[in-house]
Amino acid sequence: MTTRQILIVSLFACFLGTTAFIVTQALLVSKENATSSSDEIVVECKGTVDGWIFRKQGPDGMLHSDDDPISHNLLLLPQHSTVQLQMTSDDYLFRLSQKELNLNTIAVPNHQITTMIDTGKPGLYDLESQPMCGTPFFHANVQPQVVVTED
């Protein structure tokens, strides 16, 4: 093998190792935070090449019914709420995080990862969203946000 080939293989192995570590950590955090309660708000968060689609359960309390509000890159939540996020993706592996909301999770194609967050004080929270695979310039440059509103 040439030096260039060794370097390419080494960089690829490093990338795979780093990705595996991040995925493992996100899954562990998600598993620790996942609980269920009838008082929680359920939100499906779907990562796509064009941004994020948030589908929140409507007044009937069921997800995927006709009364569900759907938004793109903006999630509205009431303060002092427990929120169950059901993470998934249409196309790529995505990381989604936000320090103040104690959110650090991933969205995986054809797989659901459930994590919990608690909303605190009202405000606008920028979410860090990064594709973990694919070509970065194919992904839309969007800034998903959570708006926590007063009661």
Keywords, please?
Immunoglobulin-like, single chain, 11 strands, 1 helix, alpha+beta, three-stranded mixed sheet
Strand percentage: 35-45%
Question: What's the Cα radius of gyration?
Answer: 17 Å
Structural class: alpha+beta
Task: Specify the helix fraction band.
Answer: 10-25%
| Ends apart, CA distance between termini | 64 Å
CATH class equals Mainly Beta
| CATH architectural arrangement | Sandwich
Tally of contiguous helical segments:
1
Within CATH, the superfamily carries the name Cupredoxins -  blue copper proteins
Largest sheet: 5 strands, mixed
Mean pLDDT: 82
**Can you count the beta strands?**
11
Strand order of the largest sheet: 3-2-1-5-8
Order of helices and strands: HEEEEEEEEEEE
Low-pLDDT residue spans: 30-36
In the residues, how many domains can be counted?
1
Which fold name is given in CATH as the topology?
Immunoglobulin-like
